[in-house]
What we know:
Helix content is 41%, strand content 33%. It has 140 residues and is of the alpha+beta class. The chain has one domain (2-135): Electron Transport, Fmn-binding Protein, Chain A (Pnp Oxidase, Chain A, Roll), CATH 2.30.110.10. Strand 1 (32-38) and strand 2 (44-50) form a beta hairpin. It is globular and about 75 Å long. The chain starts with a helix and ends in a 5-residue tail after the last strand.
Amino acid sequence: MRxxxxxxxxxxxxxxxxxxxxxxxxxxxxxVVDVETVxxxxxxxxxxxxxxxxxGFAWLRAGxxxxxWLVRIEANPDVHVTRAGVDQPMKAVPVREPAVRDxxxxxxxxxxxxxxxxxxxxxxxxxxxxxxxDPVKPSP
Length: 140
């Protein structure tokens, strides 16, 4: 019985360490931007996400299509992105083309290395959604 308790505690400890490593990798594994979204009730939400640049645009990646921030931008694509201390209004555009998704995956893997590998171990890469950030031109 004592062996079973120790085994269960060991498995729980491993799970806690793994979840902690995922969190540390996602927050400390490289450049993180703050994306502010607004839900249907008008509440503001801040999400820390990795970002890559490609083709003159900044790109984000939702690991799963049901991510809260992705659901919110599908309802309201107007976001504020804080990158390197600069806040900028943007239009978030989900792009579900497999070739684009795979390109963003490759860029994330190149930029974030081991952290991307660790975080990616929790999701099916074919279910991810690339999100292009289009700058919003100031109104005259």
